[in-house]
Amino acid sequence: MAKAIAFLLLLLLAPAAYAQTTHTVGDSRGWNTGVDYNDWASDQTFTTGDTLVFNYDSSHAVTEVNQADYQNCNTGNPINSYSSSPTNISLTNSTTRYFICPTPNHCSQGMKLTVTVSGGSTSPTGSPPNPGSPKPSPPGTPPRTPPSTTTPPSTTTPPPPAGDATSILGKRSSLMVGISVVLGALLGLMG
Questions:
Q1: Distance between CA 33 and CA 110 in Å, rounded?
Q2: Helix/strand/coil for 51
Q3: What topology is assigned to 20-120 in CATH?
Q4: What are the distances in angstroms from CA 16 to CA 3, 62, 75, 81, 188?
Q5: Where are the beta strands (DSSP E) in 119-159?
Q6: 173-190 and 2-17 helices cross at what angle (nearest 10)?
Q7: How high is the pLDDT of residue 20?
């Protein structure tokens, strides 16, 4: 009986170990000036299904922009704009997303965040261009001679992300350890 109860507890608690993560941007400092968001993001693992939470006061807001607007702190062409704190943003796709504060000079003072989301499936809409294949010539131009040698495509796989198991698993492994300890204690008491 004790083993059956422990097994049922394991079935109930195990899915929580794989639940997606809620990332509070800037941790206790929130979405504010004076925070190094590159440093903060480097300690995070963003996965499809996770949520970003931006906490800020009325002097700030959150604007999602494209990469060029991010680099230039341009808020003139927002993808999304938010002005109500806390702002919760679901990370639904494997992609890179860019966020800035639209308050004048805040972005240029470092109030900007890049989030690279991994996980999920991505299906390209077309084939990537082959760097060794010639581009078609406009009508009326003589055909180009292809290069005499071509470089084969790279077949190396990138190395796994740096960090310990906790950072790679998005800090979920500590929950699994906790569940294991509790179940071990229950089995010891009941067995």
A1: 7
A2: strand
A3: Immunoglobulin-like (2.60.40)
A4: 21, 30, 38, 32, 23
A5: none
A6: 170
A7: 87
- pLDDT number for residue 30: 96
Domain coordinates of the chain in residue numbers? 20-120
Instruction: For residues 131 and 128, give the distance between their C-alpha atoms in angstroms, rounded to a whole number.
Output: 9
Residue whose C-alpha is closest to residue 172's, from 17, 12, 5? 17
User: What pLDDT sits at residue 64?
Assistant: 97
| pLDDT attached to residue 137 | 42
CA 92/CA 76 separation, integer angstroms: 24
pLDDT at 172: 44
**Residue from 38, 15, 6, 2 nearest 190 by CA:** 2
Read off the pTM: 0.56
For the chain, how far is it from start to end, CA to CA, in angstroms? 9
- The C-alpha atoms of residue 64 and residue 114 are separated, in whole angstroms, by 10
**Low-confidence residues in the chain, pLDDT < 50:** 6-18, 121-139, 141-178, 182-183
Residue 28: other Cβ atoms inside 10 A = 6
Contact (Cβ atoms closer than 8 angstroms) between residue 31 and residue 60: yes
Q: Please enumerate in sequence order all residues whose Cβ is within 8 A of that of 149, keeping only pairs 6 or more positions apart, or say none.
A: none
Cα separation, 63 vs 74, whole angstroms: 10
Q: Which residue type occupies 46?
A: F
Q: What is the pLDDT of residues 48-75, one digit of tens each?
A: 999 999 999 999 999 999 999 999 999 9
